[in-house]
Amino acid sequence: xxxxxxxLFPLNSVLFPGLVLPLNVFEERYRAMMRELLKxxxxxxxxxxxxxxxxxxxxxxxxxxxxxPTAVPEPGPAAxxxxxxxxxxxxxxxxxxxxTIRERADGTFEVLATGTTRARLxxxxxxxxxxxxxxxxVLEAPGEExxxxxxxxxxxxxxxxxxxxxxxxxxxxxxxxxxxxxxVVSYLVAAAMMLDTPTKQRLLQAPDTASRLRDELKxxxxxxxxxxxxxxxxxxxxxxxPTHLN
Length: 246
What we know:
By secondary structure, the chain is α+β, with helices and mostly antiparallel strands. About 30% of the residues lie in helices and about 20% in strands.
């Protein structure tokens, strides 16, 4: 299987194929990454890999008291990830394509990227100004009964949305039709549900689409039942993803 070496962007969240990722880049190691990506011709994809942090800090101490008042600055591209960065990250991540990289006057960057394909982390190199990684693509089969499962997940997801929105007709899709392709459904629902990071990571690395959809169906039924019994839960704005500081 063909491998690729890409810049590596670790986050405390999970990126799924097809989902948009806004980034506010201010750490020097990631500024260097964006400057390098800008060297790529505009008609070619500006790709980097996003992996979820298993053990470490998304933002490393860059100056005394930032971000922790007691923090001691850590130099280098692997700051915050220990002596062996490979052990600090989950092994399945997502390749991202940066559609927009805009440098601000202060040297920070505003980036808008989209997840494209899953990839498995094979090695991490911390010898340059930013982390790079050797990755191999993670192919996904549909699995058995993916189409029927996707229909069931969409029905359950609509109920989940209504519960979150206080039984009103507000929708994640803001009136637009939800997709019906099983793989797209599985990633959209995984990204939109209010789940902890380990659970989202489990969904990302599911062996096939059907397995992910089965897991999501159980999660949706459980979460909807919880919300039903906790009517004071505030509705969440699901149409907007977080903007990561890095």
